Structure formats: structure tokens, C-alpha cells
Amino acid sequence: MVRALRAICLWITVLLAACDSGGSTPSGRSGSGTVALRIRPNWDAADPRNLGLLRLRASSGHASLVLFKNGIYLRVLLTDNEGAQINLAVDLVVENWIAGESHSVAVTWNGAEIVLYIDARERLRAPYSGDLPPALGFDISEFAADADATLTDLLEDDRALDVSELSRFYEATVTPIPSLPAASPASPAHTVPSLTATPTPLQVAVPSNISIAGVASPTPTPTPTQQ
Which of 47, 172, 24, 38 is nearest to 98 (CA)? Predict the structure, then answer.
């Protein structure tokens, strides 16, 4: 009888602890996701302009993801629900971006780290445990009207996709590089429909006082005046 009572008490204690914690990790700290898209720029890597590309944000809270071109760098600026920011950057000259060629860009997070992929190849990995929502929590999409690039095939997933999944996205969305033989008229090249979102002017202020993961900050370049 005593053993039975002890077992019941232990079961009640465990049940109460689970109820108190919600049976999961603390709220807001377990978000994970992937944001990926296809970019075909009308500019080469050495183009010195600062251009906004895409901003995703949550309708409630501070969380946002901004993709923009800062001189020769492609940057991803993530802001969590508490306002903390992390900035990832890759050198487009090193990546050899050429006007008219398509590329896939993907960002994944899992509550412990953030990874940036270019053409399904990992380029940066940074530890990060900020209060980010799942990808579908970014329910407002804004495309820059002055991006001077074509942005298509926006993908949002509430999982941190692995490299094999991102490789399939890359193969399905990015057209062959110009060095490959052109498709014959009888076998037209695959075309990817553009998103139907209405372009929205996107103001991108390049932060000067936040940590940069991956590369040193470049020499600031003037930001074009938005009309």
C-alpha cells in the first residue's frame, strides 16, 4: 500500500511539472524555419549600390528578416521578438555573381544556430538562440521596388531544411548557367513564374553598430535616396 501511494504521488508530481512547463521548451525559444528564394540580379558582384531586396516581418512583435545588397556584400539581417539582431554577410565578388544569372539564397534556423546557403552550399553558420518565430510567423512579405533584380519562388517552411532539401529547391528553381547549351525550340527551357506580390518600396538602413557574422564590415557606401 505504501509503495502504491508513493507511486501515485510521484506520478502526480511529474504530471504537475509537465502542466506547469507546458510540456515543452519555454515559449518563443523553440522556433525554427527556412526562408529561401531565387534571385536573378541585373547587376554584377562589383556593383557598388546599396539595394533592398526582401523584407519578411511578423504582424505582431519585432521579428523580421531583411535581405539586401550592401555594396559587394549580400546581407541577411534578422531581428528577433526582443529586438536583438544578427547580420550575416557574403562577398558577392567571391561568389562570382554575374548579371542575368540565377541563384538561390536560403536561411535556416533551429533555436541554436543560423545557417546561410548560396546555391544550396553552406556559406555561413553562426550560433544564435534569439526569440525567432517559425518561418510562417513572418506573415507579411515586402518586395523592394528598386531591387533591380527578379525575385521568385519564395519558400517558407517551419523546419530548418537540410542541404539535400535545399539542393532540390535549387535544382527546381534555378535556371542553367549560360555556359550550358541553350534549349532547342522543340524543348523550351523551364521558366519559373514570378510571384504575384505587389512591389513595395523598402527602406534599408545599413546598421553600423551590430555584430557581423562571417566577414568584416565593408567601407560604408552612400545609400540611394528613396523617391
Answer: 47
